[in-house]
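Review session, final week

We close the course with one last complete record, chosen because it touches almost every idea we covered. It is Protein kinase domain-containing protein, a protein from Ceratopteris richardii with 338 residues. Go through it on your own first, then we will talk.
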Amino acid sequence: MLSLLHHDNLVSLIGYCAEGEQRLLVYEYMSQGSLEDHLHDIPEGTEPLDWSTRLKIAAGAARGIEYLHDKAKPPVIYRDLKASNILLGDDYYPKISDFGLAKLGPLGDKTHVSTRVMGTYGYCAPEYAMTGQLTMKSDVYSFGVVLLELITGRKAFDQTRPSGEHNLVAWARPLFKDKSKYSQMVDPSLRGRFPPRGVFQALAVAAMCLHEQAASRPAIADIVTALRFLALQYSKVPERIMNAPSNAVVDCESCMTAKETDTAAVQEAAVSKGSQSSQDESESCKKGSSVKDTETENKCSNDLWSTNSDSKSRDQAVAEARQWGEALREKRGREHSV
């Protein structure tokens, strides 16, 4: 299957070696190993991945899944997305590898593919684990687990942790509901070097991906748009923001160029709206979507895990995210034509 798929965020199959009964596949060399190598059991004295690099890796992995879901013909469900299957090249450029469990997606009016449950414990979507019905949203859930690993530095399943903390998603659920706990979820190896607003936004994306109801999870294309924005916004975060107190609310407009500010405001409003938990909070966000309105942001971030999100607000958030993406593509097109 991999020989038919070609994308910058998928590992390239170069060829094969057949000698006697031995069969080997030859892939491109990825100099930095796997994402798992850089998140878990890091050798002493090794610097952890910084915040902007983590966002870049998340955005790249999402683009790889987007290609499989939306560009490949027929579409492909990856089925085994996890940190060890995301390989890193020079400058930590991410590529998805190991397509041994990948399945062709549903065609026509079919909504799912029925198959034997396979994958890695801790990453499987609950509806797939219970019914064997595989959908594109199954990959979205697995991506949410990987994104949560990038934010927290924790493994998807870790029996060495205290009781109640073995499963990453189960541990995160109650913390999603309390914004005062957000800073406690961040990988301690970062030593506080992360933008508080960026943590909120990344957690909002992860929470939507990990929604228990598959239909309520966003499409991978919308995740790509959101993470591309976050990776751009925090690619060059000033030192004063990285060292801000973990409970601070920081105005990160200064991280962007003047040309990017207007479209960034639209996308930030979309990210915030995706995590609203009631109609009242939805109205507050509509009235105060400015990145400078910190009071409204605090109301909107009250509950990232709510299962009662207003679907109308979610649709509006998705529409605004797409609008931002189109505006960015048009701007880049004009710059290239000059």
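Two points worth writing down before the exam:
The chain has one domain: 2-13+29-337.
The radius of gyration is 20 Å.
Good luck, everyone.
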